[in-house]
Amino acid sequence: MTYEFWILLTGALVGGTCGMMGCFLILRKMAMLADAISHTVLLGLVLAFLISQSLNGGIMLVGAAAAGLFTTYLIQVLNAKGIQEDASIGVVFTTLFAIGVILISLFAQNVHLDVEHALMGEIAFIPWDTLTLPMFGEVPKSVVMLTAVLLLDLVVVLLLFKEFKLTSFDPGMAAAMGFPILLLHYVMMTLVSVTTVSAFDSVGAILVVAMLIAPGATAYLWTDRYLKMILLSVIIGVFDSIAGYYAAKWLDVSISGSMAVAAGLVFLLTWILSPRHGLMARFSVLRAGRG
Question: Which residues pair with 132 in a beta bridge?
Answer without folding.
Answer: 138
